[in-house]
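Minutes, project huddle
Topic: does the predicted pose make sense with zinc ion bound?
PN asked that the exact inputs be recorded in the minutes so nobody has to dig through chat later. Recorded below.
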Amino acid sequence: MEYYTQQKLSKHIYRIIDITGVCCYLVIGEEKACLIDTCNGIGNIRDYVSTITKLPVFVILTHGHLDHIGGAALYDKIYMNHADLPIFQEHGKMSSRMDNNTTLVPFPIAEKDLTPTYTGKIQNIADGELFDLGKITIKMILVKGHTPGIMCPLIQEERAIIFGDACGVGVMLFDEFSSCVSEYKNSLLKLREFEKDYDCIYRNHGTFSSPKELLSNVIECCELILAGTDDHQPVSIHGFDLFAAKALDKHGRVDGKQGNIMYSLEKVK
Ligand SMILES: [Zn+2]
Ligand SMILES: [Zn+2]
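Predicted holo structure (tokens), as shared on screen:
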């Protein structure tokens, strides 16, 4: 069975989509390649990546959630901001990964179908750290909010940024690890300082890309929530009773714009 498909976004960037519909990104320089996130870990993503590049590959994890860390154990050089280590421990549990994947794939899966969780050393990524792949440079920007250590990789020469789960069409702010709305807003204001450095925004879920106004739309959502003037539409996600900042129907925001926040009341501060 084919577990992965690919889309070539440029000479240096590939999107790799797993069978559950989540994607990760392969960035290829002249000397090495970087796999940014690793999907859910179904099948063998390393074998798949080796059909695209023969260069040495290392892994950057944007954050510790299970749909991003799944295939990491197939590699021996892995980087992630250490603020996400507690999440990595929690989400890496095989029981959590099995529960999640069972609901996402249309066939029965067993533990042997999943890459084991990575248990080796994870190297920290500092805010602003650069990774040189040879003529292609990735700058890592900390955007604390969805998780405490989540980072957006800016692929400088390609003028592309991977927002991932850090800023998107339904940013989740509700669990014990996520920020309150005002702290998240400050992260987004910092991210906005890099707006002149990119033309494309890539994400890991849904439509996988967004127009540039996504960022200002999500900043506006923060402002509306803090002012108590957002749409405050009740939504149930993963069994949690949350609120959407902007009213939704099954197609997305009712007003047709992109960018939204799903939050719990204790994050409103
Ligand atoms: Zn996430
Ligand atoms: Zn995700």
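Observations noted during the meeting:
- The chain has one domain: 4-267.
- The first strand starts at residue 4 and ends at 8.
No decisions taken; revisit at the next huddle.
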